[in-house]
Write a structure and sequence with these properties.
It is built from four helices and no strands. The chain is elongated, with a radius of gyration of 18 Å. Pfam families: PQ-loop.
Length: 103
């Protein structure tokens, strides 16, 4: 049996909160069947960072860091998969009109 120290406990709570933060976004995308406002660039950068944190967690043998970043990675990839899926289903181009007028 592995005994968790106080810092590992704090890490696990932090991991649960940050990992759970993706659930509302995933539910919103799924229910609305749209991820048009999700930025590919932001998620690619985010996933790259999470992969680095995951590797770091493995290197220092930090179970909270490994578990949380693995879960976050799966959820971030799920967001991109849903974005791609719903874009493929809606061939209508999105035209955004700025509320500001140019002078």
């Amino acid at each position: 049996m592995v005994a968790l120290n106080l810092l590992d406990g704090v890490g696990m709570v932090a991991a649960a909160l940050t990992t759970g933060a993706f659930v509302p976004q995933l539910l919103k995308i799924w229910r609305s069947r749209s991820a048009a406002d999700i930025s590919y660039g932001m998620y690619i950068a985010f996933i790259t960072g999470v992969l680095l944190w995951l590797g770091y967690g493995v290197a220092i043998e930090s179970m909270p860091m490994v578990v949380s970043n693995a879960a976050i990675l799966l959820q971030a990839i799920a967001v991109l998969v849903l974005k791609r899926r719903f874009e493929a289903q809606d061939p209508t181009p999105v035209i955004r009109v700025s509320p500001y007028r140019r002078r």
